[in-house]
Specification:
Layout lengths: L6 H19 L6 H21 L13
């Protein structure tokens, strides 16, 4: 998990994702592109983690694979 300095970023990202999903369920049209960008950003976090430290090999395994 993220250290003390980066833990807040994960929390903010999860809250924003929840708000986006809630708005979509309430009928507010956000567009699939915006939601896709959110998930792309999440995947980018795993990529950055792997590229910074190759011992974090688990970050390169797809979740649904």
């Amino acid at each position: 998990m993220a250290g003390k300095s980066g833990g807040w970023a994960l929390g903010v990202a999860l809250v924003l994702l929840g708000v986006l999903l809630l708005l979509q369920n309430l009928g507010v049209e956000l567009g699939r592109v915006l939601l896709g960008l959110v998930f792309l950003g999440g995947g980018g976090g795993f990529l950055v983690a792997y590229l910074r430290d190759r011992s974090l090999w688990w970050a390169s395994i797809p979740g649904g694979g």
